[in-house]
Specification:
The chain has 27 helices and 18 strands. The chain is an alpha/beta fold and 640 residues long. It binds nicotinamide-adenine-dinucleotide.
Length: 640
């Protein structure tokens, strides 16, 4: 029997670890084989997603095969370990950034290298037997394989706690700490796997998800935060030593077993990582500074000796009194210069983009991508173009060989037609990024079609209007897998100021229609208030000056004032030529009312806004005017 089974089954790329007798410990060769398979499947249209699992009920994967490392290190060959870690970390980053969904089933132990394999995909499933941990400090290593990323993001100071103690997380804890996504009873796993092989999509899994119960980690959070908030390992130990609670005593006992240098470096790594520039690359690069030095200058060989060679469980650590000087930490975490970890460049750094729909919004968005140095080819049947964007004569020509196809279209029907035509033309593994505002059902249907063509899909409708599109300050509300969202992030960064991942495909549209229901109602309220102010003889500028700084303020008043010559430049200053056309607002209000009907939500203001925009667009000549042209409509009318 081989250590690993790599195959395709139906539409799934299947990877099964088959070393149950060794708790599926990951060897160097297994890493290389998995990476090669992921590379092969990335652009294979026959592979819709990856399913990772393991034989045996004791472990998904209890870690990297450290016996292998020990032999080479003892022989003075430190290069082997460095090569192994560099290759393993490249695999971890590949899983994290993989353009297709990666579903992992994590029974029993998932530790260390197992976390790097099983906890970076898009759908991380845990069950009753799951025990997840980063126990590296117990052998003189820091939490690695990208685990420091999750630890840095875990609630409060639980990252420092989990990383230094190696505490075992049950399913609920793992979800709480961000190492897993869904709890599904393990009896359901075989059927789910079959479904994923035979036409199901990973998001369908969510319907089988159950409540994992309360996280023990949550209950410990205040103790953890109290004791693990210090700057250094020394600070943490000092507060624990001053407390005789069961938590403090247990934790001190655990920390006394682990390598002080590794624990001190773990704390420092998490402190350095936390913050807005956190990324998997940064986490792996910092971990690698330690691991590259761990055999030669750290305690790793001694840790492995005590744990699995002599099994005396009595390691002779450096800094045995647990007081690790700052200089020792700095030496382990100094940059490695030319030997620094090199991960493959993310293909999304310079993607080729096909842009479909160069209207009021699409044209400036495409221009911003081109300005940022991306190769953008655009198509719009109306013949519109955008600055810096190569014009194609057809949709298929625009999307040929594109890494990303971005659509900015009027409605769901047109989106479906465009998807029907273009999805089969797209490069396998590419991303279909729809930024139009459309109905949730069209989005979900197109997402399914994209998956069936081996493509990634993200719905990311926007807020911010033409001004935001031109200035690159849009807000994106996105739906889709974590991996697909991550792939789209560099583009969101260029075109917008913020992107919120709202959930699975369709969730972005749900957020958008709720937002626009508010916008429709507030624009009407703003316009009718101006019309009333006119009749009361109140100057519009004075009205703006008061309301824009009082409790009646809103985006409609402050950023998009419907009164010409008042407030910042807006379509009102341009004869109500759209910005955001009234018929598009009508469309959005229809979408929100349809959605409200479907889920039986009571939305009387939304319903009234819909009726007023319908009247304006269909009966009163509002089509082709900006949605803020409601102001002249109210101003010209007397109460009947
Ligand atoms: P728009 O009408 O100006 O642009 C849509 C473009 O799609 C047009 O240029 C049209 O020619 C093109 N198009 C139509 N059918 C096509 C096809 N089959 N293939 C390719 N292109 C096709 O609309 P917009 O204001 O740019 O809005 C686009 C989307 O963004 C809409 O879904 C809208 O609801 C949403 N949106 C608009 C604003 C806004 O302020 N304008 C704000 C947020 C969201």
């Amino acid at each position: 029997m081989t250590d690993i089974s790599i195959r395709t089954a139906g539409q799934a790329g299947r990877i099964t670890l088959r070393r149950p007798q060794a708790l599926n410990a990951l060897t160097y060769q297994m890493c290389l084989d998995i990476e090669a398979a992921l590379d092969r499947w990335r652009n294979d249209p026959g592979v819709a997603h990856i399913v990772l699992d393991a034989e045996g009920d004791k472990a998904f994967c209890a870690g990297g095969d450290i016996a292998e490392l020990y032999e080479t290190g003892r022989a003075g060959d430190f290069a082997y370990g460095r090569r192994f870690w560099a290759d393993e970390y490249r695999l971890n980053a590949k899983i994290f950034n993989y353009p297709k969904s990666v579903v992992s089933f994590l029974q029993g132990f998932t530790m260390g290298g197992g976390v790097g394999l099983g906890c970076h995909g898009s759908h991380r499933i845990v069950g009753e037997s799951s025990k997840i941990a980063m126990p590296e400090c117990g052998i003189g290593l820091v939490p690695d394989v990208g685990g420091s990323l999750m630890l840095a993001l875990a609630p409060g100071r639980s990252g420092e706690f989990l990383g230094t103690t190696g505490w075992r997380m049950a399913a609920a804890d793992a979800i709480y700490a961000g190492f897993a996504d869904h709890f599904i009873p393990e009896t359901a796993w075989p059927d789910l796997t079959t479904a994923l092989e035979t036409g199901g999509i990973p998001d369908d899994i969510l319907t089988s998800a159950a409540d994992p119960g309360a996280a023990r980690l949550d209950a410990l959070q205040s103790d953890i935060d109290r004791h693990f908030a210090g700057e250094t390992l020394g600070d943490i130990l000092t507060t624990l030593e001053q407390d005789d609670s069961p938590f403090a005593i247990d934790t001190r006992t655990t920390l006394a077993r682990n390598a002080p240098l590794a624990m001190a470096c773990t704390v420092e790594i998490l402190h350095r990582l936390r913050g807005p520039s956190l990324s998997i690359q940064k986490a792996l690069e910092l971990e690698y500074r330690f691991t590259a030095r761990a055999m030669e200058h750290g305690d790793l060989l001694e840790g492995i000796r005590a744990a699995i060679i002599d099994k005396d469980r009595c390691p002779q650590w450096q800094f045995a009194n647990q007081r690790v000087p700052a200089i020792a930490v700095s030496k382990m975490l100094m940059p490695l210069g030319k030997d620094a970890l090199k991960l493959e460049e993310n293909a999304m750094t310079h993607p080729k983009i096909g842009f479909i729909g160069l209207g009021n919004m699409g044209a400036p968005m495409a221009a911003n991508l081109a300005k940022a140095g991306m190769t953008v080819t655009g198509f719009d049947p109306a013949g519109t173009t955008a600055k810096g964007v190569a014009a194609a004569n057809s949709g298929p020509e625009a999307v040929h060989d594109a890494d990303v196809v971005l659509t900015m279209l009027p409605d769901g029907e047109i989106l479906r037609a465009v998807a029907q035509e273009l999805l089969p033309q797209m490069k396998p593994g590419a991303l279909f990024l729809d930024c139009s505002t459309v109905d949730v059902q069209s989005t979900r249907d197109v997402a399914r079609q994209a998956a069936s063509h081996g493509l990634n899909f993200v719905d990311a409708p926007v807020s911010g209007g033409v001004g935001g599109a031109a200035a690159g300050t849009l807000t994106f509300m996105a739906g889709g897998s974590e991996a697909a969202f991550a792939a789209a992030q560099p583009l969101f960064d260029i075109m917008g100021q913020k992107a919120v991942h709202c959930g699975a495909a369709g969730a972005g549209q749900a957020a958008k229609i709720c937002n626009n229901m508010i916008l429709g109602a507030t624009m009407i309220a703003t316009c009718e208030a101006f019309a009333l102010a006119d009749k009361l003889g109140l100057d519009r500028q004075k009205m703006f000056d008061v309301v824009s700084t009082s409790s009646g303020y809103s985006w409609s008043m402050n950023a998009y004032c419907p009164a010409p010559g008042v407030g910042p430049q807006s379509p009102a200053d341009n004869g109500y030529k759209p910005g955001f056309a009234a018929e598009l607002m009508l469309k959005d209000l229809r979408l929100s009312q349809q959605a409200a009907e479907a889920v039986n939500a009571d939305t009387p203001m939304g319903a009234r806004a819909l009726e007023l925009y319908r009247q304006f667009v269909e009966d009163e000549g509002g089509r082709g005017q900006d949605f803020s042209a409601m102001l002249p409509r109210f101003a010209d009318r007397d109460r009947r």
